[in-house]
């Protein structure tokens, strides 16, 4: 799910659009991709039509039918050609319609009196009015650009946003490194943010759930009885993860479809009281189901459906062996293909072992993360790319440590909260 945060401030100085330009397009297929690799790459080209205020010729584009992108400033215009060069026209009082030479440009954008272009190597060049530094981009590796009237934004390759001359507009870029698109107006910015997983803690003695967002807000509600084993999953396929409980005294599962206080929406029994419940989408259909790990057998039992109406779930779809006695099972999509697999946290050593298929075999990957006694949970955080990576909750200092890749190394981030006996859960909660 995508979120659309915004930040605003300052007065809007842009008087209004005086120019509209449209690119009439055709698609052609060329034989060599932008990276030089052979293969068919579709490139859209066309000629440009302008209309509206034309006091400076800004609505009279140059001839040609090999344009791939257009940008309209206050009273100047830019177009990107198929050969990677830029042409400008209209008002050029401060050089805003005179792009730098070169044929390695991939994107253009135009503000009040300044312009930016993104180059194939990820760098940005600026020209035109630079009275506040808006046409002097910082060095870096970028994937997208946007300009407001008097300020500039760029999306970095790591998913963070950089703004310059942003303070002039009161539009300083927000923190975070999981943005996928940017846009800038007169004095405000917009960004598309990817919805990643985040974590919660459940107090098993009271059934109190606390779900924490990336900005640190905590939503609290009660669900379950003392001793229930908590987990989260998307039971109804709406993209939001919500609570589930496994009551080991009677081997009943209690699932709820919202992150609020209330009774279970789905109830059924399955497995043995000593089984460890596992929630995941084991067939990639967008719905999480409950499976189990039976520690006495080191055996995973995978089930791709939910039970209902207090009935039994029936036999597992299939099973496989993985792990050693004492290992704690976890679920995650370690390879980002949309299908969850399983892993094991060996608490005696702090090693994490995982497989990329739901079959018996040796670990496909393993690395050390956390200390013995840490409580392990996996999710898509830090780098939101569909790949789940570990986090551990350490009871001794009530700190959660996050790793952003499935590689050995220290924690990429950490947060201290909760109490020593609380249990970690993870998911997309549906609120920021
Ligand atoms: Ca859901
Ligand atoms: Ca499924
Ligand atoms: Ca997978
Ligand atoms: Ca990830």
Report the β-strand fraction as a percent range: 35-45%
CATH fold name of the largest domain, please?
Methylamine Dehydrogenase, Chain H
Helix content: under 10%
| Dominant shape | elongated
Q: Give the N-to-C terminal Cα separation.
A: 11 Å
Which structural category do the helix and sheet elements fall into? mainly beta
- Report the mean per-residue pLDDT as an integer: 87
Which regions contain 5 or more consecutive residues with pLDDT less than 50? 1-21, 25-41
- Quaternary arrangement of the chains shown? single chain
Radius of gyration, taken over Cα atoms and rounded to an integer in Å: 27 Å
Q: Major sheet, described briefly?
A: 5 strands, mixed
Q: In the CATH classification, which architecture of the largest domain applies?
A: 7 Propeller
Q: If helices are DSSP runs of H or I spanning 4 or more residues, what is the number of helices?
A: 0
**Within the largest sheet, what's the order of strands?**
19-20-21-22-26
Describe this structure in words.
- This protein is mainly beta and 432 residues long.
- It has 2 domains: 2-194, 7 Propeller (Methylamine Dehydrogenase, Chain H), CATH 2.130.10.30; 198-427, Methylamine Dehydrogenase, Chain H.
- Helix content is 0%, strand content 45%.
- The chain contains no helices and 36 strands.
- The protein has strands at residues 2-3, 6-7, 19-32, 38-52, 67-72, 76-81, 86-90, 105-110, 114-119, 124-128, 142-147, 152-156, 161-164, 179-184, 189-194, 198-203, 208-212, 218-222, 229-233, 242-247, 252-255, 266-269, 276-280, 289-294, 299-302, 311-312, 318-321, 328-332, 341-346, 351-354, 365-368, 375-379, 389-394, 399-402, 413-416, 423-427.
- A 5-stranded mixed beta sheet has the order 19-20-21-22-26, with no helix packed on it.
- A hairpin with an 8-residue loop joins strand 28 (328-332) and strand 29 (341-346).
- The model is unreliable at 1-21 and 25-41 (pLDDT under 50).
- The structure holds calcium ion (CA) (4 copies).
- One calcium ion (CA) is lined by residues 234-236, 238, 240, 242, 257.
């Amino acid at each position: 799910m995508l979120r659309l945060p915004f930040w605003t401030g300052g007065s809007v100085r842009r008087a209004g659009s005086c120019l509209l330009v449209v690119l009439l397009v055709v698609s052609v297929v060329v034989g060599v991709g932008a990276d030089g690799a052979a293969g068919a790459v579709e490139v859209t080209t066309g000629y440009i039509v302008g209309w509206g205020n034309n006091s400076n010729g800004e609505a009279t584009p140059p001839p040609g039918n090999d344009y791939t992108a257009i940008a309209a400033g206050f009273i100047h215009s830019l177009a990107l050609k198929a050969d990677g060069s830029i042409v400008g026209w209209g008002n050029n009082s401060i050089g805003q319609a005179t792009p730098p030479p070169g044929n390695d440009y991939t994107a253009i954008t135009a503000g009040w009196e300044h312009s930016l272009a993104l180059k194939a190597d990820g760098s940005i060049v600026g020209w035109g009015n630079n009275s506040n530094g808006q046409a002097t981009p910082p060095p870096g590796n970028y994937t997208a650009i946007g300009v407001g009237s008097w300020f500039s934004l760029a999306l970095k390759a790591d998913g963070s946003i950089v703004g310059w001359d942003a303070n002039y507009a009161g539009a300083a870029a927000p923190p975070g490194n999981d943005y996928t698109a940017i846009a800038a107006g007169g004095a405000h910015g917009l960004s598309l943010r990817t919805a990643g997983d985040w974590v919660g803690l459940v107090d098993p003695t009271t059934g109190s759930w606390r779900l924490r967002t990336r900005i640190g807000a905590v939503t609290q509600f009660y669900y379950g009885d003392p001793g229930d084993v908590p987990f989260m999953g998307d039971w109804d396929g709406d993209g939001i993860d919500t609570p589930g409980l496994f009551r080991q005294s009677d081997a009943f599962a209690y699932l709820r479809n919202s992150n609020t206080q209330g009774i279970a929406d789905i109830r059924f029994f399955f497995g043995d009281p000593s089984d460890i419940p596992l929630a995941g989408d084991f067939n990639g259909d967008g719905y999480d189901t409950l499976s189990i790990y039976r520690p006495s057998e080191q055996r995973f039992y995978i089930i791709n459906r939910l039970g209902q109406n207090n009935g039994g779930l029936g036999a597992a779809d299939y099973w496989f062996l993985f792990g050693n006695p004492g290992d704690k099972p976890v679920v995650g999509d370690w390879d980002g293909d949309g299908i969850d697999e399983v892993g094991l946290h060996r608490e005696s050593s702090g090693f994490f072992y995982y497989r990329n298929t739901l079959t018996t075999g040796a670990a496909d990957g393993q690395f050390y993360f956390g200390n013995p006694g840490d409580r392990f949970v996996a999710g898509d955080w830090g780098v939101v790319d569909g790949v789940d990576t570990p986090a551990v909750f350490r009871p001794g200092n009530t700190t959660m440590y996050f790793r952003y890749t499935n590689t050995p190394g220290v924690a990429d981030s950490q947060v201290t909260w909760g109490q020593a006996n609380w249990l970690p859960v993870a998911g997309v909660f549906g609120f920021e």
